[in-house]
Amino acid sequence: xxxxxxxxxxxxxxAKQTLKEVRNLARILAEVxxxxxxxxxxxxxxxxxxxxxxxxxxxxxxxxxxVFNIPPQLSNPQSLRNVLLSETAYPLNERxxxxxxxxxxxxxxxxxxxxxxxxxxxxxxxxxxEDSDIGAPFLVGFEQFHxxxxxxxxxxxxxxxxxxxKTPLNFPVIILTSSARSSSKPLGVVLLEIxxxxxxxxxxxxEGTSSPVQNDILGSVDLARLRNPQxxxxxxxxxxxxxxxxxxxxxxxxxxTEVVLLCLxxxxxxxxxxxxxxxxxxxxxDWTDEDxxxxxxxxxxxxxxxxxxxxx
Length: 312
Description:
Structural class: alpha+beta
CATH architecture: Orthogonal Bundle
CATH superfamily: Transferase(Phosphotransferase) domain 1
Strand order of the largest sheet: 1-3-2
Number of domains: 1
Helix content: 25-40%
Strand content: 15-25%
Number of strands: 10
Shape: globular
Radius of gyration: 19 Å
CATH topology: Transferase(Phosphotransferase), domain 1
Distance between the termini: 35 Å
Number of helices: 10
């Protein structure tokens, strides 16, 4: 059994460079240890001609289908979104281990100088195994990625339930090594969902068709109608931080809350104390050098170190 992960190429990207980086990523994932890094081993990539939209000039663009092996000891894959929607109760240590493994997967992707741009519960597969009740999480969804300090090779979309976990591009960040931090904010949103053990996206029945709606727990977060994208992104971020501060400490403790806030505030130029006082004084300000440049990979390593240090 295999998993097929399709990457639709960005028409604006350089085709030769896209092909080169797809091959590089496939080679790295072909050598990965699934049990250690929470990433499936890549068997290869299939090139498929994109015939949906004829190009204005030149050849049709290529899509790429990553083929991943499923280890024999794993079975019954489902997305983390489905796990959250099932509302099945699991012990705190199981949920914490799930969060730790996910953070470890993202750190590995960055250590090989790639940035995963599509981190959300839909791109995290959870397999049944014998080691835990929840199962083993594996990060997929490589249809949107780029090399560090490079271009994104797959165009984004305007689907609100996808953009919930994406980093807003309007934040006033003046840095040289931002790429590692760009995965921190969506990681923070997923860790918040795991901590609350609830799905921010719900599916209702609308004339027989399942359509996504926002969970009421999100309060005034407005993702479906962004009339002012710049202002909405900032307000949404503050709403998510407030939700973490209010709800997480009583569920997974203050240390886990600090990790989530550290991720959500990854693009802040100022300390976390500007948001909610001294109780959760965490933010990106502590991870900048004398010139104000954030140390991207160190930021991710700090997140991993903090979450790995939590014991329940």
